[in-house]
Amino acid sequence: MTDTQTFEKILRDRQRELQSRLTRIDVDLGRTKEQDSDDRAIESENDEVLEGLGQAGQEELRAINAALDRIAKGTYGTCVRCGQPISKERLGAVPYAPLCEDCMS
Q1: pLDDT tens track for 72-90
Q2: Which terminus in the chain has less CB density within 10 A, N or C?
Q3: Which residues contact 84 (CB under 8 A, 6 or more apart)?
Q4: What is the distance between the alpha carbons of residues 55 and 46, in angstroms, rounded to a whole number?
Q5: Spatial distance between the Cα atoms of 11 and 39, rounded to a whole number of angstroms
Q6: pLDDT at 46 over 90
C-alpha cells in the first residue's frame, strides 16, 4: 500500500468516526428536555459542551474532506501555500494537514 493509500484509509476511517459521532450529538441535542429546572440547567450545560464538540467535529470533517479532495487531485502531501512537500511526520500527526511546517509558522 502506498503512503497516499495509507493516509486515505486513515482519513476515511476518521471521517466515518466523526460522522457517527456528529449523528449521536444531533440525536442528543434533539431529545426532549426534562421539566425539572435543576435537570434543565444541567442539560443546558451538557448541550453547550455537545455543541462545542459538534462544531470541532464539523471543522475536522471539513479538513478531512479537503484532504481527500487533494488525494483525488493528486496534490496530497504538498503544501497548499508554498507547494513544498509536507513531511511524513507532520502527516502522521495530522493526516489532513494542508500546510508544511514552515508555512504553519
Answers
A1: 999 999 999 999 999 999 9
A2: C
A3: 78, 100, 102
A4: 14
A5: 38
A6: no
Asked if residue 44 has pLDDT above 90, the reply is no
Cell of 103: 508555512
Torsion of CA 24, 13, 87, 104, to 10 degrees: -20
- Looking at the predicted structure, is the pLDDT value of residue 23 above 60? yes
**Contacts of residue 77, Cβ cutoff 8 Å, sequence gap at least 6:** 3, 4, 7, 70, 85, 86, 91
